[in-house]
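Narrative of accomplishments. A recurring question from our advisory board has been how the design workflow behaves on a single, concrete structure rather than in aggregate. To address it, we present the structure tokens for one chain from the evaluation set, followed by the sequence designed for it. No filtering or post-editing was applied between the two.
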């Protein structure tokens, strides 16, 4: 059986994470002043804050792929948003949010169309989109409208910046609850080097995808600093990803002891199959886009045994908050939630906490709500399923402790 080891960043590093789901404790400790600092903590819907919101319901929109190749991400986000909204409204005793979700099929143009549909509905706050390229397109629209946007899992810096790259100008109204790509790349290289996993590294990445290429760029620079030798860097594109065996063979021929995969799980499954077919057994090291590999129809999950991946959430974690969320999600949707569900859950609960703390309500227009939430998010601390002590800086990036999981016996296990 193929040995797969995919690495995550050192737990001691507090980084900005993507995809954070949480059962937030809705009993807010925040003040009602929009400029006040607050601390909120994740819990379950049963213990959410009671009766603290009495205004007109706020129209909360969601966007993500519920059909197409990335539907496993968007469906999880949609389900978790619905679950969180239902819990919050029930615990409050009257509606806090009205909620509507639109499918974008992981397509930028369709995502903008979905955004416009939600605007016509009267959306005042956006929870989403889910993936990077649609989020970049929609973020530009929200800037023009001054509408608050919090994405659960779109991790590229270009989502929160008007200009791509580390030196870009912050959009101001767009926030993330997940890792940024640069941090994933840097942390992955640090982990490989600091733990002596390998010195000869192969990389297989999607050069047409902002998520994948953004992580690789930072990984490459940090690997050089850490004394890691990248012996093969093999790219593919969205138009050229049906057969990745050539990339796998080149890593083998170059003598790569570890193959870094800053890609999504669909392509990763092809790579694992191709490596197994030629008897190539390097260590494999993945990022948060690997989550979902166990749900691929027809995939031999034994090939993923031992796979480690960077993720903010493990469904089998023993803490009470996680288990309450997992139980509620499984009861509602008949399946175990993944990290994207957890991210989305945290998105809704963090927005709720900010709403309570800032004193906004549905009688305000979207721009007024946006200004209040921007101030609140950059001054509050939030404890969710995907991290405790989350804070946001003025760029919209979140800072929190990362977590890792390993695949054991065909299931994700907390590290």
């Amino acid at each position: 059986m193929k040995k797969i080891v995919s690495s995550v960043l050192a737990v001691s590093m507090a980084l900005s994470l993507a995809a954070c789901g949480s059962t937030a404790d809705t009993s807010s400790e925040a003040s009602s002043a929009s400029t006040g600092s607050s601390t909120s903590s994740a819990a379950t819907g049963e213990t959410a804050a009671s009766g603290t919101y009495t205004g007109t319901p706020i129209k909360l929109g969601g966007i993500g792929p519920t059909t197409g190749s990335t539907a496993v991400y968007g469906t999880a986000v949609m389900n978790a948003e619905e679950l969180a909204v239902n819990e919050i409204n029930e615990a409050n005793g009257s509606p806090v949010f009205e909620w509507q979700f639109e499918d974008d099929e992981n397509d930028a143009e369709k995502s903008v169309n979905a955004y416009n549909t939600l605007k016509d509905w009267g959306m005042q706050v956006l929870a989403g989109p889910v993936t990077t390229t649609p989020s970049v397109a929609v973020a530009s629209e929200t800037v023009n409208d001054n509408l608050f946007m919090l994405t659960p899992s779109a991790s590229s810096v270009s989502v929160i910046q008007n200009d791509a790259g580390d030196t870009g100008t912050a959009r101001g109204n767009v926030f993330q609850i997940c890792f940024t790509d640069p941090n994933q790349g840097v942390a992955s290289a640090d982990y490989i080097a600091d733990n002596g996993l390998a010195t000869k590294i192969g990389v297989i990445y999607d050069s047409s995808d902002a998520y994948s290429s953004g992580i690789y760029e930072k990984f490459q620079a940090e690997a050089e600093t850490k004394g890691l030798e990248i012996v093969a860097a093999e790219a593919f594109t969205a138009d050229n990803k049906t057969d990745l065996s050539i990339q796998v063979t080149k890593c083998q021929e170059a003598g790569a002891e570890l193959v870094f995969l800053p890609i999504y799980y669909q392509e990763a499954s092809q790579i694992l199959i191709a490596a197994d077919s030629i008897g190539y057994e390097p260590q494999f090291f993945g990022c948060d886009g690997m989550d979902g590999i166990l749900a691929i129809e027809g995939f031999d999950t034994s090939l993923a045994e031992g796979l480690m991946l960077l993720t903010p959430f493990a469904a089998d974690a023993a803490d009470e908050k996680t288990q309450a969320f997992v139980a509620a999600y499984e009861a509602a949707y008949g399946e175990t939630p993944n990290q994207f569900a957890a991210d989305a859950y945290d998105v809704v609960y963090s927005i709720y906490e900010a709403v309570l703390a800032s004193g906004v309500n549905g009688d305000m227009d979207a721009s007024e709500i946006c200004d209040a939430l921007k101030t609140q998010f950059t001054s509050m601390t939030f404890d969710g399923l995907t991290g405790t002590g989350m804070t946001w800086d003025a760029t919209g990036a979140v800072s929190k402790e990362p977590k890792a999981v390993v695949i054991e016996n065909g299931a994700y296990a907390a590290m």
